[in-house]
Amino acid sequence: MSAIACKPACKAMSFKASKASVPLVRAPTAARMQVWQPNNNKFFETFSFLPPLTDDQIAKQVDYMIANTYTPCLEFANKTQAYVSSENASRLTNGAAASYYDNRYWTMWKLPMFGCRDGMQVLKEIVACSKAFPEAYIRLVAFDAARQVQVMGFLVQRPENSTDFQSPSSRSV
Prior knowledge:
four-stranded antiparallel beta sheet
């Protein structure tokens, strides 16, 4: 409908201001913005910029996996193979980052938990893997069978003497 044809109809309408207010969201200040430190700034998967997850936080993530019918799977690697480096991965480019999977594999703990509907099963497997490999990095990944891709991945254990975690403030310039 053209603007000319709308004029009579528009005159009949009356618009009233809403009494509901929209909350003001402030943009981050320059002091809050961070520049990523590219040198020796290693991290893993989702949540690796956070302090290690508690058992309760891991359980909530497992519940999320199960609720979305994802297939959980545990993987582990020792310290020398956990990070992408020129020694343990061949790469097509020089850039390596979290979720960069050019020939980088961790050892799988048992088989993926196909059809798992009980989060306690996953948590028990995390404990068993941790007992068997106390000095390994252990990550929990989840696969979506419909899309046939990995949709989640995060560490559930770091070796006790690891010093690789850095707070976000120390990871920026």
